[in-house]
């Protein structure tokens, strides 16, 4: 696994082989098209699980615009080999063999999510397999975020789910990245136009696109202090940071304190809090509509009436 440079993609007995050119320049980085192409090859090779039959529906629910991502035909699915029995590296609980793309500096690398909800669905993982998801983001994390976003001209959202209350199911420290087009190209629509209808507390900062990693970290730390006050919890070395989301692109950062994953068995991840509700079946979608997305995300966050 090397720097993000030019690549050739070949197939050998059903396995995708990455041939990386030596000395690729920084101006010759992977494009979004490259990522989609390789993503499709790995999905075809069963190294990534992704259902191409999923469709998106747009609904307005209690003043909030919701995108519901669901299978086009619940009786039609793709059968792919499970990655559950493959052992990750020591210290990690995330399997990335065969899906790793490139390094993002000395402390992080880029890989595809083996169980993808989006196309492509990327992960930015720490090269130290013993770093944990309860830890707050640091300067090396933001350097990796900026390297990734600068590769793709701000066409991706990067998000961090801290702890189980924020929807995190893995301990190895990582961020995720998804295309803005997953939200019909408008990931911030609810915040910009329906902010008064959003029932939970969030902290938002807009900034110039030439923001440095250090400046991004400073904004994150300011938001984390707000999370600590909302949840009445402190960041400690043993327990890590209070549960929260961090979502950003090259022009905005949003931090959302979390007190629960949702209303069992339904939960909202970062996309859900922004209005992208990802469900695996019509039955699950009906449960969302019966309970109400606004109630689920309010339970997961801090209600505005009490969050301040």
UniProtKB/TrEMBL annotation:
<dbReference type="InterPro" id="IPR043171">
    <property type="entry name" value="Ap4A_phos1/2-like"/>
</dbReference>
<dbReference type="Pfam" id="PF09830">
    <property type="entry name" value="ATP_transf"/>
</dbReference>
<dbReference type="GO" id="GO:0005524">
    <property type="term" value="F:ATP binding"/>
</dbReference>
<feature type="domain" description="Ap4A phosphorylase 1/2 N-terminal">
    <location>
        <begin position="101"/>
        <end position="180"/>
    </location>
</feature>
<dbReference type="Pfam" id="PF19327">
    <property type="entry name" value="Ap4A_phos_N"/>
</dbReference>
<dbReference type="InterPro" id="IPR009163">
    <property type="entry name" value="Ap4A_phos1/2"/>
</dbReference>
<dbReference type="GO" id="GO:0003877">
    <property type="term" value="F:ATP:ADP adenylyltransferase activity"/>
</dbReference>
<protein>
    <recommendedName>
        <fullName>ATP adenylyltransferase</fullName>
    </recommendedName>
</protein>
<feature type="domain" description="ATP adenylyltransferase C-terminal">
    <location>
        <begin position="197"/>
        <end position="303"/>
    </location>
</feature>
<dbReference type="InterPro" id="IPR045759">
    <property type="entry name" value="Ap4A_phos1/2_N"/>
</dbReference>
<dbReference type="InterPro" id="IPR036265">
    <property type="entry name" value="HIT-like_sf"/>
</dbReference>
<dbReference type="InterPro" id="IPR019200">
    <property type="entry name" value="ATP_adenylylTrfase_C"/>
</dbReference>
<dbReference type="GO" id="GO:0009117">
    <property type="term" value="P:nucleotide metabolic process"/>
</dbReference>
């Amino acid at each position: 696994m090397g720097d993000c440079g030019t690549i050739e993609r070949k197939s050998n007995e059903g396995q995708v082989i990455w041939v990386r050119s030596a000395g690729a320049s920084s101006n010759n980085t992977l494009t979004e098209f490259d990522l989609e192409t390789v993503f499709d090859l790995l999905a075809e090779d069963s190294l990534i699980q992704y259902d191409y039959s999923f469709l998106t529906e747009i609904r307005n629910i209690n003043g909030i615009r919701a995108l519901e991502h669901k299978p086009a035909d619940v009786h039609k699915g793709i059968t792919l080999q499970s990655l559950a029995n493959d052992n990750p590296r020591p210290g990690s609980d995330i399997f990335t063999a065969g899906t790793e793309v490139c390094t993002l500096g000395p402390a992080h690398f880029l890989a595809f999510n083996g169980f993808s909800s989006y196309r492509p669905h990327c992960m930015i993982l720490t090269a130290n397999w013993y770093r944990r998801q309860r830890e707050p983001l640091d300067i090396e994390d933001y350097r990796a975020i900026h390297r990734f976003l600068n590769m793709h001209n701000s066409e991706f959202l990067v998000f961090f789910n801290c702890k189980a209350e924020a929807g995190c199911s893995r301990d190895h420290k990582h961020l995720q990245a998804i295309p803005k087009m997953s939200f019909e190209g408008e990931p911030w629509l609810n915040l910009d136009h329906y902010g008064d209808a959003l029932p939970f507390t969030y902290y938002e900062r807009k900034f110039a696109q030439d923001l440095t990693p250090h400046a991004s970290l400073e904004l994150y730390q300011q938001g984390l202090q707000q999370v600590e006050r909302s949840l009445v919890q402190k960041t400690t070395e043993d327990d890590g940071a209070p549960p929260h989301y961090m979502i950003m692109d090259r022009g905005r950062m949003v931090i959302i304190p979390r007190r629960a994953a949702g209303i069992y068995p339904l939960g909202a991840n970062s996309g859900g809090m922004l209005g992208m509700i990802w469900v695996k079946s019509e039955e699950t979608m009906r449960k969302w509509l019966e309970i109400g997305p606004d109630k689920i995300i309010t339970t997961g966050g801090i209600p505005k009436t009490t969050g301040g």
